[in-house]
Design a protein that fits this description.
8 strands, about 35% helix, globular
Length: about 250
């Protein structure tokens, strides 16, 4: 059995004395493929910084998301108003969700005494795998981690609640074809820190994973139940298309 794995991880360098970001030796791409990778990473980092700063996306992006969201939500009518007559080939996004919760333990601390991000990612992956398995009806094959957002730190003793859902599917791989013609399942996992004493709940992380269903000939199409879900689906679709375009650039296609 052979495996071919590719990983790209961004790391943050911090000063051990101040705990703030510190300068490092700059990365200098030399080959054409490295320059493409470097630019794609730089563009992605810039987009994330803009979103964290709550800057308004470009008007073209806003229009694209609004138009796609409206188109996706237009399929929801029968499921919301006439469920007994709705298509069995489709399913509401809310019907695909799974949840779990746990208390953050001290053995999962990093050097800053916060919960290690890799541990949270592993827990998110496990829930995403179970969600894909439960949705597809056959054992899923992990394809890739699409995006991870660390929005706020998690402390030892925090009550963590993870919510997952299938955001959308491509029954024959669509235009992405990450695993031939196998159906693709895109799963979102949100991690929340809840404080029952203060009655507070804040999101700490978002994770996006892609799985294929190699033992299935197809899978149900996901339908949003409201405009918020439609927007969530549209944003993920656009992000995945951009990611696929970057892959083609890297390969020189």
């Amino acid at each position: 059995c052979s495996s071919d794995l590719t990983a790209k991880f961004p790391f943050v360098a911090r000063s051990p004395s101040s705990g703030s970001a510190t300068k490092i030796v700059p990365l200098s791409p030399s080959t054409s493929s490295e320059k493409v990778l470097f630019k794609n990473g730089s563009d992605s980092a810039l987009r994330k910084k803009e979103l964290r700063a709550n800057l308004s996306p470009t008007s073209s992006y806003t229009s694209q998301i609004a138009s796609l969201s409206a188109s996706l939500f237009s399929k929801s009518g029968p499921h919301l108003k006439m469920p007994s007559l709705s298509s069995p080939a489709q399913i509401l996004m809310s019907r695909t969700s799974l949840h779990n919760s746990f208390i953050a333990q001290p053995q999962n601390r990093n050097m800053s005494s916060r919960i290690f991000g890799g541990f949270l990612m592993r827990r998110a992956f496990e829930l995403a795998f179970a969600t894909s398995y439960n949705f597809g009806g056959s054992r899923p094959k992990f394809i890739e981690v699409d995006d991870v957002s660390f929005l706020s730190p998690v402390d030892v003793g925090d009550l963590m609640v993870f919510h997952s859902r299938v955001v959308y599917t491509l029954k024959d791989g669509g235009t992405i074809k990450l695993d031939g013609d196998c159906p693709l399942v895109m799963v979102e996992v949100e991690a929340w820190v809840q404080d029952p004493v203060r009655v507070e709940s804040n999101i700490s992380n978002r994770f996006y994973f892609t799985f294929s269903l190699p033992e299935s000939e197809g899978c149900r199409e996901i339908v949003p139940g409201d405009m918020e879900e439609a927007k969530r689906m549209a944003q993920r679709m656009v992000a995945d298309e951009e990611q696929e375009e970057n892959r083609r650039k890297e390969k020189g296609v």
